[in-house]
Amino acid sequence: MIGSFDATVSILYVIAILAIGLWTGLRHRSASKKTNVASEYFLAGKSLRWPMIGLALFATNISCVHLVSLAQSGFDTGLLNGTFEWMASFTLILLALFFVPFYIKSGVSTLPDFLEKRYNRASRDWLAFISILSAIIIHISFSLLAGGIVLQTLFGVNMYTSVIIISVITTIYTIVGGLKAVVVTESIQTVVLLSGAVIMSVVAYNKMDGWDSMVHVLEQKNELSKLSMMRPHGDSSGLPWYAVLLGYPVLGIWYWCADQTIVQRVLGAKDENNARVGPLFCGFIKILPVFIFVMPGLFAYALYQTGHLDVGSLKTVVDGKEVVNSKGIYTLMILQLIPKGLAGVLVAALLSGLMSQISGALNSISTMASYDIYKRYKPEATDEKLVSAGKIAAGLSFVLSLLLLPLLNSYESIFNGLNDIIAHIAPPITCVFLLGVFWGKASARSAQLTLYIGSAAGVLVFAYSKLLPHTLIGEVPFMMMAFYLFVFCMLLQIGLTLAYPAKHTIESSKLYWKSPMESLQSPGWGGFGNYKFLSVLLILVMVVLFWVFR
């Protein structure tokens, strides 16, 4: 366990974040002269600028799950899962160029609201239900699981006790302060999280005596493939290069362009330029995780092979064979590699990731529960009633997320478990958003049925693969399964559109691109802040990075 000084640093950090969150949220609401209380609470009065949007997007995405699971993946498979981080930059470009203009122009408060304007009410209802459920499972429960594993090891406190304490504190300032409190605390937490991750990377690098020493160890063990992101067909990881290129866009477009928890930061933008540049700024920040989250795990593997990292406490017996349960590798690195006094900063970074993920998800859940569910049945509800309904929904969601922890803990790898679930949720949503924005003929009826049938297919395939894992379907890698389900949904919606042609309203006829180039007609800011320049620069940087680590 960590020492008393480091524990004190961690506790003071949590108290400071709580105070800042409460102060920011209450100050923002009391200082506002606007009458739309709900907009102030859920969307920060549409006052967010690009730096805060970019940092908040990153903080909502990077949680304790990433710190723990990316280090685990670095230990197990090397740089492979870093592809998830770098491929995200391409989907953030799609968000900035093609989706943001419609979200801002339509003036929606939620993405289900956007689907109603583009398609129909039934599509909105279904997306609201799926989005709330996915936020509970993916953004909260998995974060709590990762955080609980870390806190139990570091503080010797029961996993459920520790996550409940941290989560209750986060829930308090999220429910009281709304999106403004969430975004301000997320911006602070991003800086702390990145600082802690950099410290871990530098310490692991120095302990290994540099990059060349680590490469030498991998060469001796005949595991240089751990340095490659683009794996060949038949790779034992189940993630060859074509699976990443085909499957990730399905997951990424849903996550970055159509998931309320993420996109809500963009919906709170001051204007379209801030809404476009914010995601691009996040795209550049997404370069960092490979170097500061994944590589420490790879260095830990080399240190373990050379005897400089004792993993005895993580060893377990599976099928009569002793293996390393690498879920706790990041925590072990904190305890064995980080000097006393700095460990508190690392724990604060872990808590930052946990708290920012939970706060962002709870805020998006409360927004959807209020606007997409409560207001439907209570259209005359006042802003105060909407806010109250959102707070209640956030509290109930938090309780449900705790109940799911034992089930999710059955996954051997947290990161793979997370993406396995996303791979079966994302395809129909990615499909209806893509066709809705790029194909004017996509009809409301086709979108509605695609969401219903596609989601049912995802659940059935997921259940079948878990109950019968050694069958043909059960052995399909989750990234390829995401692609197959997406192709099914695309063919389904196109066929249904031919059977049920679109009947556009005045509003829906303005919510799709007549041609992709139409999205680039907005001149944007001048100079280096121009969204077109930043998009091209980000693409070039990512292509070079993928080539270097191919």
Structure notes:
By secondary structure, the chain is mainly α. It has a single domain (about 5-30, about 50-410), classed as Sodium/glucose cotransporter, CATH 1.20.1730.10. The chain has helices at about 5-30, 35-45, 50-60, 65-75, 80-105, 110-120, 120-155, 160-205, 210-220, 240-255, 260-265, 270-285, 290-305, 330-335, 345-375, 385-405, 405-410, 415-440, 445-465, 480-500, 530-550, and strands at about 315-320, 320-325. Helix 4 (about 65-75) packs across helix 15 (about 345-375), helix 7 (about 120-155) packs parallel to helix 19 and helix 19 (about 445-465) packs antiparallel against helix 20. It is globular, with a radius of gyration of 23 Å. The model has no long low-confidence stretch (mean pLDDT about 85). Belongs to the sodium:solute symporter (SSF) (TC 2.A.21) family.
- How would you state the average pLDDT, rounded? 84
CATH topology: Sodium/glucose cotransporter
The total tally of domains equals: 1
**Rg, Å, rounded:** 23 Å
- SSE pattern: HHHHHHHHHHHHHEEHHHHHHHH
Helix coverage percent of residues?
over 70%
CATH class: Mainly Alpha
What structural category arises from helix and sheet content?
A: mainly alpha
Family: Belongs to the sodium:solute symporter (SSF) (TC 2.A.21) family.
Keywords: Membrane, Transmembrane, Transmembrane helix
Membrane topology: Multi-pass membrane protein
InterPro entries: Na/Glc_symporter_sf, Na/solute_symporter
